[in-house]
Give the backbone structure.
Amino acid sequence: MSFLKPASPQVASNVRNKIALKPGHSLMDWVRFKSKNKPLQPRRITPQELGQHKEIGDVWTAIHGAVYDITAYVDYHPGGADELMRGAGIDSTDLFNEVHKWVNFQNMLKEYLIGYLVDTPKKVSQVPVKTSLTVPQLQPPVSHRVIPVGTKFTFDSYQTERCFTLIVYGKTTLTNQVKSCFFYGMINKKALKVFVHCIDKKFLLDLSLYSDLQKFDIRSSNLKFEIVIHKQLEAIWPSEGAHSSQSKTISENSNNLVVFEVICTENIEATHDTRLLTFRYLHDFHALPPMGSHVFVFNPDDKSLVDKKPYTVYNVIDHSTFQLLVKKYEKGIMSTYVCSLQANQTAQMQGFDHFIDLNVLHKNKNIIILAAGTGITPFYRIIKELSRNKHFTDHSCSLIFFNKTQSDILEKEKLEELQSQMKKLEIIHVLSQENWDGLTGHIELSHLTKFSPKSLYLTCGPKMFMKKSVEVLSSKGVLGSNIIEFSG
């Protein structure tokens, strides 16, 4: 189903959700046509009223709580009237999300916004709404636009009686850019702070919410970020709240370390001396950590929060959960502490520091990764991104993984799974303390089966391994700009 997005006129093909559009009904025609329409003042619309507008010539639909009169859009819909009418007179959010959840429907239909979907009057009257929250008329979304060089951000908002949604759109003005971005956000009582980092810029939301909330979520798709505020009481707010002087501003990307608390949800054996730990953020903290970044684990015996140890974020499961691969050292105080954490135990952490910009990788078609032991940790997410990101379809990647024995190889099955997903991914294992049919010894040029001084080299592992890696590469003419070292 092609539920909303217009397309250029085309001859009907074997793709069932495309039809031939009438002449003069392309995307650009729709943009010109809708620009002539004068927007209405949005109002409250019940599901019952919405349901009365479901016939050709009178079509309304609701998407994410916003109600649109899409009567004029029927002839511009590339999937045809029948497909569009599936959402007529109902909340079509699920239908829209099936295919086009990344589409900016607010911009496409903003001239035809007529109101916001609310519960029936009977149901609303049963909810204990504070008098201070009752307003006579629904306010339209506020839109602010700030345009820097390199990256653009647009901020919008909309609400229903249950939720207030803040939306940050990121867009790069630079050509051939990989959309490399991350975010983190937290709330303390009514104080909300969210950082969105996109390529070369950082966007900050910093505000005191209009009223109390139950919780908040952050959803992201490509360069669209939705901060969903779940209200404590059902009501329409006159605005999202009061923004600080720094809110909705853009600055250069830089480290903004923040302290947060996590709970360990799982601690399992990865190898005989390494643990795979899963953590979940507590206290309404959400994050998509940048690739190659660290979290700093605080020593629980140091109440001043000064003594801390960095560990690379190995895997991100969702915006609430991440994983670390931690090797336990016999005399390591912090590694012993982290590896001993059990399910339901909490820990204090700080994050996030540097990140690898995928555009650096995109510039070189041949990427060679040199990893030793737990030095694999920054590369799992990078390889996973290379395997699924369309920008790297023509890239080749070689992972040369150094370990003592076969039993020391971390996450071997997961790496093999990634190899099956990326045709141009080569994985080579080198062992230093086991006789086997594969390569052996410590790092040397002969281990680099596809060596080229023009390739891009990523390296991570023990200090001596990284020092030796740089020496070997430099001796063969690899420039320092083609070597990226990841600290452990």
Remarks:
- The radius of gyration is 26 Å.
